[in-house]
Design brief:
The protein has ten helices and 20 strands. The protein is an alpha+beta fold and about 575 residues long. It has two domains: about 290 residues, Distorted Sandwich (Beta-galactosidase, Chain A, domain 5), CATH 2.70.98; about 190 residues, no CATH class. Strands 6-7-8-9-18-15-14-11-12 form a nine-stranded antiparallel beta sheet, with no helix packed on it. Strands 5-10-17-16-13 form a five-stranded antiparallel beta sheet, with no helix packed on it. A hairpin with a 6-residue loop joins strand 19 and strand 20. Helix 1 packs parallel to helix 8, helix 3 crosses helix 6 and helix 7 runs parallel beside helix 10. The longest helix is centred in the C-terminal third of the chain and has 43 residues.
Length: about 575
């Protein structure tokens, strides 16, 4: 290879190494910032409803204070066919949401919220150091639990939890929390604002990407958010962009429809029904996955506007809580743009279509691996005519290659003239030099749409296919001795089929470009090696279809080069 080719290859290798280092840092457990875990709670303190106005800027430093429990914890339960809520008298909220149909590691149920965080729905004064007052629980029935307490100012706080009915009698993860404050004192009561705890979110599996562990909020139908990486320190690039670790995030917002904490596949989302949220808060802490491994978690809270109560008056607030898997079809049924928590980004329409179509195919085939293969087949058959034209264009380019090589040698000292003559050659024979790129341009949004969709498709969790135990995780079958590197079969098949496909592709372009293209399978292998097996399965199947189409095209006669008449001389 010439010097330019070696430079490009070296840059590609450096880029891959940097990418792997970045992923390693993202996946590695990191200590919680500054002092104390932001989720540590104190069960006693001043009245929690008297909260200060939310801050308008991110907080850079804080010192949490904790004290020991002063009253015993009592648990009440609410349960339906999908989720069991364990409600605690400490703060009067949901200590845990146990998802009865979602399995984590070792056969255990997925549990939302952590003991290190405030209960979901707890009304707190300062999220960084939440104080949990003692409530008295009084279950009204098997489907409703009510908490009550009276403050020193004779303010009676009542909180009622119950399930909302799902329109399909399944996927019932929606809980309503009704809050009533009654002023039974003889003085007016003034609140400048308060926070409601969202609980926390943490990766379910150690290979889940931390960038999906996020605090998210929605304003005017558009989701915004931060992930756990926001809290960590950064050394910057070449000394630029350095910053220390940040213990928590707090920001005033212009009325949010909902606020959520979310991991790759599950979310706890709260939508205030009587007024929009005016602030968000988030903090990062560690959760222990195993004795020698900790994962990064995030907890959050939403800020609500203040209010005033005259003696005898009552303040009412209602909140809708979704605590469950990120099922797009279920979230889309909710009335406050809750489906935006999926974070599909600029490929939203493509992701929605592919996800709905994949689930439709699964309803017929009853296997997600087969559904992905069927989806790939349909996409390839749809693009088959376009790919045929592209293949013909590439074969014409290959037939034209000797003439182009003559021009390169003739004008090797004049690149501008050489390019002009090459373009004339294309026009003489009526060949579009970018005709072979059209299918790739069409498949780019499909590929990235699938990447975003498959990265959060909770339907693929624990979905088996052949030797794959979980299509949402890499299909690791073993580890290399000593090095400990995982052996993932489908990405290796993907790289092999891509090399096979490149060997069949007609040789066009200059030798340097062809040599650089040889490294594309290696680049894709590095990038996709630890991605979900579902994505590698799609790409491998797509390569096999492309190989089949190339074989079919090769059986056709080689296109002959014929000069086309200039536009002014063509027959009308």
């Amino acid at each position: 290879m010439d010097r330019t080719a070696w430079i490009v290859v070296a840059l590609c290798v450096i880029g891959l190494v940097v990418w792997e280092i970045y992923l390693a840092k993202q996946m590695a457990p990191r200590p919680a910032p500054i002092v104390g875990a932001p989720g540590q709670v104190s069960p006693t303190a001043t009245p929690a409803i008297l909260a200060p106005s939310p801050s308008a800027t991110p907080v850079a430093e804080a010192t949490p204070k904790t004290t020991g429990p002063s009253f015993p914890e009592k648990i009440e339960s609410l349960r339906n066919s999908d989720v069991e809520l364990r409600l605690t008298n400490r703060g009067g909220g949901i200590k845990e949401a146990i998802l009865l149909k979602q399995i984590a590691e070792k056969g255990r149920n997925v549990i939302l919220n952590s003991d290190q965080s405030a209960p979901i729905g707890a009304i707190i004064e300062e999220p960084f150091t939440p104080t949990l007052e003692e409530f008295t629980a009084s279950p009204e029935s098997d489907s409703v639990v009510q908490f009550e307490r009276t403050t020193a100012e004779q303010i009676i706080i009542r909180k009622k939890f119950f399930f909302e009915k799902s329109p399909e009698n399944k996927d019932n993860y929606v809980i309503e929390m009704d809050v009533d404050l009654e002023n039974r004192g003889d003085k007016p009561y003034q609140s400048s604002g308060y926070f409601v705890a969202l609980g926390s979110a943490a990766p379910i599996h150690p290979k889940d990407y931390p960038s999906y562990t996020r605090l998210v909020w929605c304003i005017n139908g558009r989701a915004k958010g931060i992930d756990v990486g926001w809290f960590g320190s950064s050394s910057g690039f070449l000394g630029l962009g350095q910053r220390p670790a940040r213990p928590n995030y707090q920001e005033s917002i212009a009325g949010a429809e909902w606020v959520a904490v979310s991991n790759q596949f599950f979310t706890t989302l709260m939508a205030p029904l009587t007024a929009k949220a005016t602030a968000v808060w988030g903090g990062r802490f560690d959760v222990e996955h195993s004795p020698d491994q900790k994962l990064l978690a995030i907890d959050g809270a939403l800020g609500m506007p203040g209010f005033q109560l005259q003696p005898g008056q009552t303040y009412n607030a209602r909140f809708e809580i979704y605590a469950g898997p990120k099922l797009y079809h279920r979230l889309a049924q909710l009335p406050h743009n809750e489906a935006e928590v999926m974070d599909f980004g600029m490929f939203k329409i493509v992701c929605q279509f592919l996800l709905n179509f994949m689930n439709l195919l699964h309803s017929w085939l009853h296997d997600y691996g087969l559904a992905i293969l069927a989806l790939t087949t349909i996409i390839k058959l749809t693009l088959w005519p376009i790919q045929n034209k592209a293949n013909r264009s590439m074969r014409q380019m290959a037939a034209l290659s000797p003439k182009m090589q003559e021009l390169r040698e003739k004008y090797k000292d004049d690149p501008t003239r050489m390019n002009q003559e090459v373009m004339k050659l294309y026009k003489q024979y009526g060949i579009n030099p970018v005709g072979g790129c059209l299918p790739m341009m069409i498949q780019i949004p499909i590929f990235f749409g699938l990447f975003k969709m498959l990265g959060q498709a909770v339907e693929l969790r624990n979905a088996k296919f052949l030797w794959v135990k979980d299509l949402s995780q890499p299909d690791t079958v073993a580890y290399l001795p000593v090095l400990g590197w995982p052996i993932n079969i489908i990405p290796l098949c993907m790289a092999a089929t891509q090399i096979w496909l490149m060997a069949m592709t007609p040789k066009t372009g200059d030798p340097t470009q062809r040599r650089i293209a040889m490294f594309m399978p290696l680049i894709f292998l590095f990038i996709c090696y630890n991605f979900a097996a579902a994505l590698a399965l799609y790409y491998t199947a797509q390569n096999l279809f492309s190989i089949l189409q190339f074989y079919q095209n090769k059986r056709q006669p080689m296109p002959t080069l014929e000069k086309v008449a200039p536009p002014g001389k063509r027959k009308r």
